[in-house]
Amino acid sequence: MSEGFNNFSEFWPYYLREHAKPATRALHFAGTGAGLVLAFMALISVEYWLLLVALICGYGPAWIGHYFVEKNRPATFRHPLWSLIADFRMFFCFITGRLGAELHRLGIR
Description:
It is a single chain. By secondary structure, the chain is an all-alpha fold. It has one domain. The chain has five helices and no strands.
């Protein structure tokens, strides 16, 4: 598929296909969850150095999943903003129980 996306609606199916393996999605979920918790802790404790830790904890597991599980290049290098939005969307689809239906709708097994 061409990577010349015109909008997020075109990017979203591509993003999910790049996360086709459950282990990749699990690593993303763990990283995003840890990153969100750490970012929240940084803001309420005024310990802003935790924001750097949040970024490392957020991206580290995701990139490990791409390089060692999915064997592809993270979309964040080519589409940083859409990738961040898609990661949060995938995270919230997972915690609300809608990710399976979304993967099925797009034909991703």
